[in-house]
Amino acid sequence: MSFDTPLILTGPLRAPRQMLADQEYGGHSSIHDDAMAEKLGFRAGPIEGPTHFSLFPPLLAQIWGQAWFERGCLSAHYQNMVVEGEEVRAFAEIPAPGATRTRVWAEKADGTPVLEASASLGPDHGQTLLEARMAQLRPPERLLILEDLSVGMKGAEDEVVRMDPDQHMGALYPFSLNDKLKVITENSPWYSGADNPWGRAIIPLEMVSVLAEYSSRQAAFPVKGPAVGLFADQEIRMIDGPLFVGETYLIRREIAVLAESRRTESYWVRSRIFDADGKHQVAEMLLNHATLKDSYAGYATEKA
Fold this sequence. Notes:
The structure is a single chain. The protein is an alpha+beta fold. 15% of the residues lie in helices and 28% in strands. The chain has seven helices and twelve strands. Strand 10 and strand 11 form a beta hairpin. The longest helix is centred in the C-terminal third of the chain and has 10 residues.
């Protein structure tokens, strides 16, 4: 007998750690600082969204195996912030045999949604969750903080990056990979050793975000400030993965979309990650930087 009943994989409750309390950008504290978060109307500094990406590889490896690390894509819309001390778990619908796309999400212990996402296996991902969201965005009427940006604008230069085990990842990420592995919600020996199908330590999914943002200032996109931003949507896609610890990569950035909501002005950046010589693309990140209007001094007056 067969059934078409949808079945779901569920991960355990995990308590993610806050590692960005000392984050700085633009010479000031970020939204992950409790005082800054409270000033902007949030109850505490939130844990960074991609921290929750680590909840999903155990589920998606169960579905797609090694191929997930080589050609997988997680495309997520962040829904509610998580602060340290709260617990979160991941869910994934089990797709039909041979299917290369499924729905995944994360919730707090009380059922509050944390993020919704599509997970897919390339090279043909179909339309990801964020591609669908981008298609529904209307062009902003008039931006202030982002008025000097334009869709298609490219970063000022190619950025050379790498992630060594004990490398401090800078003011944006004041910790190392080894620091993260001590508290990561789902650890694996694949992240620190060579006992895996590729014979080298691989960068965890959430740390691909760190690698991709590590050199982002070099893009020199003309965003006005000081202003405080947060991640609202994020997609990490492996093309010829995984990415390796200690490997040199080159990043090229481009503004994909500009948008506006009642509280934010947003710029979506597509960061393409290439091998060291810049000829072969291995991964890609799409990130919606939502800049809070209230964090920019005199916003209402200047906009008027």
